């Protein structure tokens, strides 16, 4: 039996950064499930598919071969044989992924891949519906969150450091809009599992959050 940790939470809560670091320290495989949805979103955007046309999205998705490999300890996402890690966190992909991931047939395709990964290795998997849908029997479940303002400020700092001109208020509005879509979609909405431990990171440093996750997992 594999050992699985499920970490859920809204966009911008720091899940990727924290879970990646915690996984390395605990000797677990890190699985960023959002990257899988982002890869499919990237494919659909490149193909200029009408994202409101479920049939068109379903048909196009069948041409997207998404695979996960671990190279030098890092998760690498391949889309039809191309390493697309560098394209997965653009603003266009980030703001569109929640629209794509809300579609039932898209979720079926990606969730099946996620379950297979978890069955094959000891891992810590992060996303929106891991503890409620993908890994309901996970050994540990954590719901990691922060206020929308804090998340917006973090994103603002990140973008500004890259030289991107952006507006804090607009970023916060985008985050809240994504939260609403994620929490109100019909299929696998973002919700804290009944047995998930709440971890609010609003007033915590990254290192403090990493240590908290490791402590909750009971691993060193």
Structure, explained:
By secondary structure, the chain is an alpha/beta fold. The protein has one domain (4-217): P-loop containing nucleotide triphosphate hydrolases (Rossmann fold, 3-Layer(aba) Sandwich), CATH 3.40.50. Helix content is 50%, strand content 17%. It has 9 helices and 8 strands. The strands form 2 sheets. Strands 2-6-1-7-8 form a 5-stranded parallel β-sheet, with helices on both faces. Strands 3-4-5 form a 3-stranded antiparallel β-sheet. A hairpin with a 2-residue loop joins strand 3 (66-71) and strand 4 (74-79). Helix 1 packs across helix 9 (206-217), helix 2 (33-46) crosses helix 4 and helix 7 crosses helix 8 (168-184). The chain is globular. The chain starts with a strand and ends with a helix.
């Amino acid at each position: 039996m594999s050992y699985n940790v499920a970490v859920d939470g809204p966009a911008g809560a720091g899940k990727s950064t924290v879970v990646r670091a915690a996984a390395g320290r605990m000797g677990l495989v890190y699985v960023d499930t959002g990257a899988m949805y982002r890869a499919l979103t990237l494919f659909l955007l490149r193909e200029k598919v009408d994202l409101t046309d479920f049939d068109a999205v379903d048909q196009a998705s069948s041409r997207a071969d998404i695979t996960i490999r671990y190279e030098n300890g890092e998760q690498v996402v391949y889309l039809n044989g191309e390493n697309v890690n560098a394209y997965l966190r653009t603003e266009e992909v980030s703001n569109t992924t929640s629209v794509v991931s809300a579609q039932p047939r898209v979720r079926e395709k990606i969730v099946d891949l996620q379950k297979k990964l978890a069955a094959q290795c000891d891992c810590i998997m992060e996303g929106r519906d891991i503890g409620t849908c993908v890994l309901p029997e996970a050994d540990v479940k954590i719901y990691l969150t922060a206020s929308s303002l804090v998340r917006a400020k973090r994103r603002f700092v990140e973008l500004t450091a890259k030289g991107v001109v952006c507006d804090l208020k607009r970023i916060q509005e985008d985050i809240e809009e994504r939260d609403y879509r994620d929490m109100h979609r019909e299929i696998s909405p973002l919700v804290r599992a009944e047995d998930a431990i709440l971890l609010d990171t609003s007033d915590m440093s990254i290192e403090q959050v990493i240590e908290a996750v490791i402590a909750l997992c009971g691993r060193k």
